[in-house]
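Work through this:
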Amino acid sequence: MARSSIENRCLGTRGDHQVGQYLIAESQSITSILGTVWVVLKTAIGLGFVIFVHELGHFAVAKLCGVKCEKFYVGFDVPIGFGPIRLPRTLGKFTWGETEYGIGIIPLGGYVKMLGQDDNPVNAQKEAERIKQSQVTSSTDGATDAHLSAESPNLPQPAEIDPRSYPAQPVLARMCIISAGVIMNVISGGIFAAIAYRSGVQILPCEINGTAAGSPAWRAGLHPGDKLIQIGTAGKPDEFLRWVWDLNQKVVYQGLQKEITPLNLLVRRGENKPQWFEITPQSRKRAGGPSMPTLGVFGPLSTKLAAPPTSTDDDSSLNRFRSGDVIIGIEGEMLPVDASTKQIKFHELSSRIQARFDQPVNLLVRHQSETGETSEETIPLPPRRLRHLGLQMQMGPVVNVRKDSPAERAGFEKGDLILEVDGESAGDPITLPQRIARTKKETLIFKVKREDQETVTELKVTLPADTTPTFADGDYQSLEVVGVAYSVSTTVAKIIGTSKDKEQNIRPGDEIVQITLVASGAAKQAAEIKFGKAWNEPVPLGTDGSNWTFVNSLVQTLIDGVDVQLTIQRSGSEHTAIISAIESDVSWDTGSRGLKPLSFQRVHTAASWGEATALSFREIKERGAGVFQFLGLLATGQLSPKQLGGPVAIARMAGSEASRGITSLLLFLTFLSVNLAILNFLPIPALDGGHMVFLSWEMLTGKPPNERLQMALTLVSVGCLLMLMLFVISNDIVRMFF
C-alpha cells in the first residue's frame, strides 16, 4: 500500500513511474546536499564573524591611537608540513595600505600584529630591536642627528622607539587597545540577540510532557501539561521561559553544588491560579555516561511526526505515517489545540493512547504533500505486545511516594517492599502497573514489608474516582493511580515463557550484574544507526548501575538480529548467556506505540526594538553568569573536565543551531561571543586578560614588570593553553568516534 501511494505521486512521462520516482529522489538528494552546504556556509560565516569582530576591536582602537598594524588575520597563518608536503599558510590574503589582511590556514582564532608587539616570547627581543631600528630609519632630520653626534661623540645616545609602535603608547591607550576585543564581542553579542528576538526566536518552552517515575518532579506532583512561568523567587513570571537555557542550566548548576538546595518553581496548570513548588534536584545515573542532576521532567512534544516518523516498522500500520504528519484526533475525538501556537501537545494524545493501552486505536492524521496540499486519513494503530527476556525479576523497594496521593494517605513509606495486592502475590513487578490499571475496585489492600523490619504491614488504599489508566516512563516502575514508585531488582525470581533461559544456565536467585547488546552481520550496522556508536558498550546493573526497568525499556526498542548478553553472578562466580527477546501473550507495551513526535516549539518575537534590546541585555547577562558558574564548578572539581568541548564541538553546535534557522544561529553566536569575551579576559599571560594584568602593574608602579618574568609566565601559559587545546580536541574525538 505504501509503495503504490508513492508511485501515484510520481511524475514520469507516459506513466513511467520509475523514471518519475528516480527524478524525485535525485531532486531530493540535490536539495539535501544544497541544504547541508548552506548550513555549513552559515556556520562558517557566523563563527568567522565572531572572531573577526573581536580582532576588529583591537584593530580599530589601535588605528585610533596611531599604532601601525602590520597584519589583520582571521585564523593563524603558520607553516604546516608533512614531510615534503607543505600546506599554504593562508587561504587568501591582500595588502591595503600598510596592513596585510588574510585568512589563516588554522581556523582556531585570529590576531592583529601591531608594530612592536608579538605574543610569541621567542620573537619579543627581535621585535624590540626592530622598532629601535625603525626609529633611526624613519627620522626626518637625519642631518641634525648626525651634527649632534659629531659635536658630542662621547655622550650616550638615547634608545628611542618608533612612536607608532605599540610599546610607545601610554599605558591607558594600550589598555584600551587590549580590552577593545572583548568589548566588541559583548556589543556584537547584544546586537546578534536583539536582531534575533526582533525577528522571532524559536524556543522550547518550559511545558511538561511528563515526569519520570519516582523522580523529584513526580514526587512533588507535577503533571503533563504543567507550565513553568518562574524559576526562583527573584524576578517575575515569564511566559517565555526556555527549557534549555533557563530550566536545564539552573537545575544542573543547583544540582552540582556541594549543598543542594531546592528550586522554587511557579507552575500554572490549565486555567488555575499559578502554584509554587519546591523541588530539589537529584543526581541521576545514566547508562554509559556520567551522573547529572535532574528534576525528572520531560520536555514538551507536539503531535507532528519527525523524520523518520516512527521508531520501528514492525507493524504495517506504522508504514502509513509520513514525516511531517500531524495527528489531530483519536477515536473520533478531535485533540485540543493550543491557542497560542495552534499546535497540539503530545501529552493530549499519549494520555488517550495509555487509557486504551491494550486496545487498538484509530488516529486521524493530517498529511501535507510537497506542494502544500493537505489531506486527512484515519490510520488504525494496534497495541504493541510487551517484549521480555523470559525472566521475572524480584520486586524492589519503594523509591518514592507522591505527595497528597492515595499511597501517602494510606501510609506508604520509602523502602517498603510490596508483597501482595488484594490477597494475591505482587507477581511480575514489570507488569504490575498494567494489572493495577485494569482494576475497577474502589479500594486496594497492599501487604508490604517495612524496611529493616520482619513484620508485614497491611495498607488500605482508597482509589480516586477517576481511575483512567496512566503510566510514567523513567528509571522506575510506578502505580500511577496509587501514587507509589518502586525499583525492580536485578535478581531473578523465576523463569517465564520459554525454556531457553534454563538451557542458558539461568536460575532463580541469579544476579544479573551487566548487560551488553550483541549482533552480527547487517544487524550490527542497524544497531549502530539506532543506538549510536556505543551501542554494544556493557551497561552495569544493580547497586552501582541501573535497575531492571532500564533493561525492560531497552528490550522494547530492540530490532531483529540484536540480542542481549547477560552477565550472571552466582555464588561468587560469573558466566554469560545470550538471550533473544520474546513477546508476551498477556501484557502490553504502554509507550507511544512507535510514534516519533517532534518537539513542541513556540516563537518569541519582541514587540519593539526596545523590548528586543532589553532581551539582548538579559541574554548577555545570563550567558555571562553561565560561563562564570561553569568555570566555578570546573575549578572546584564539581564538574569533570571531560565535559569541555573544543573547536569540533563548537562547530557541531553551531551547525545544529544553523540548521534550525538564522535566529537560532544568532543566539548561539551571542553565547559564543560572551564565552570568547570572558575566557579571553581571564588573567592568563598570552591572553588579553594577562596583558591587562601586566599593564595594570605598569600603571600602578610606573614601570613594566620584569621582562624575564613576563617571558617565563607567557611561555608557561602558552604551553598550558596548547595542552588544554589538545585535551579538548581529544574530548571532541572521543565524542565523535567512541
